[in-house]
Design a protein that fits this description.
Blueprint: E1 6-12, H1 16-27, E2 34-41, H2 47-57, E3 61-66, H3 71-81, E4 86-89, E5 95-96, H4 100-110, E6 115-118, E7 121-124, E8 137-138, E9 145-148, H5 149-159, H6 162-165, E10 170-173, H7 189-200, E11 203-207, E12 213-216, H8 222-228, H9 232-251, H10 260-278, H11 282-301, E13 303-307, E14 310-315
Parallel strand pairs: 1-2, 1-4, 2-3, 6-11, 7-12
Antiparallel strand pairs: 4-10, 5-12, 6-10, 7-8, 9-11, 13-14
Helix pairs in contact: 7-9, 9-10, 9-11, 10-11
């Protein structure tokens, strides 16, 4: 069987300590027909030089340097420059098992799926970065199988495994992402992107097997910093993302999918938003109170029903 190229998009920002391990783990894959797109997002450490060195040493590596604009812009740059038939995302401080892409490619082509992922992501502590880990923290998940998109969403929302809530460590047909980009105007660009991505797929394959993707969580990492930088604006943005997700499900006829996790997430964050305004000065409170009221009105206008311990959306009012 003739292989097809996999384009692997790697946003890079100040991860010089881990970058070589990341890129080496991609270039040393058993599946060799890969294109590695390193997007240097204005790094101020040794990352730009490391990226350029890899591009000089291996023709499969392409480097894009840009002023610092954030991970969403960097990933969009990667999507604008892919040439492979398949696309994958990797974070620059993570690393891969040598068999990951060979196994994902075999699975996605054998089953004619639109998107494939492993059911297991290993969360690697920051200190373990020199060798492939033996005693990390495996996250055992129950979600395995071949799903039509709607069934996948129902299963995903029942379990919320890490493999489905992150853009990394997946393989999909390029056509599923050709007109899809990350929202650069939000602090949580993956949330809506993932929902739209899954809904664009006819079939999603979740593979059982050993640990293949090693995801490092660092105190100064992109995801950690995002959750630490709490402000009235970011809370407002997060509520709107959850509301947009509910609207997206409703538009696709997935009224049973917009259930308790979305309802309670929105309700919880709305209450946090309300308590946050207590600490704002009067001018800020006057500025944000109408925004809070607008979102509470949207939430209260929804009709929900409880069935088997879950809360389902039965009517959607699109005020936002």
């Amino acid at each position: 069987m003739t292989s097809q190229k996999i384009s692997i998009i790697v946003p890079v920002y100040n991860t010089a300590k881990y970058l070589e391990q990341c890129v080496d783990s991609i270039l040393q894959q058993r599946y060799t027909d890969v294109e590695v797109i390193l997007i240097d997002d204005g790094s101020t450490d040794g990352c730009p030089a490391i990226c350029d060195r890899y591009a000089q040493q291996d023709k499969r590596v392409k480097v894009i340097h840009q002023p610092n604009a954030g991970v969403a812009v960097a990933r969009n740059q990667g999507l604008d420059n892919v040439t492979g038939e398949y696309v994958s995302f990797v974070d620059s401080d993570d690393y891969l098992h040598p068999d990951m892409y060979a196994e994902l490619y075999e699975a996605i082509t054998r089953n004619n799926a639109d998107l494939a992922m492993f059911h297991n992501i290993v969360f690697a502590p920051e200190s373990d970065y020199n060798v492939l880990p033996i005693d990390l923290l495996p996250i055992p998940l129950q979600l395995t199988g071949f799903y039509p998109a709607k069934d996948f969403w129902q299963e995903y929302l029942d379990t919320e495994p890490p493999c489905t809530s992150l853009v990394i460590g997946k393989l999909c047909q390029r056509k599923q992402l050709e007109n899809r980009r990350f929202d650069i105007n939000t602090s949580y660009p993956e949330t809506l992107f993932l929902a739209q991505w899954y809904l664009a797929c006819n079939t999603v394959l979740v593979c059982s097997g050993e640990d293949r993707y090693y995801h490092r969580q660092r105190p100064d990492g992109e995801h950690t910093k995002r959750f630490m930088q709490i402000s009235t604006q970011t809370i407002c943005n997060f509520i709107d993302l959850q509301i947009n997700k509910v609207n997206l499900f409703y538009d696709h006829g997935l009224t049973d999918v917009a259930y308790s996790s979305d309802r309670f997430t929105i309700q919880k964050i709305l209450r946090y938003f309300e308590s946050l305004l207590v600490w704002e000065d009067s001018s800020e409170r006057l500025k944000w109170m109408p925004e809070l009221e607008k979102r509470w009105n949207w939430f209260n206008a929804q009709e929900w029903k409880i069935h088997n311990g879950k809360t389902y959306l039965t009517r959607n009012v699109r005020d936002l």
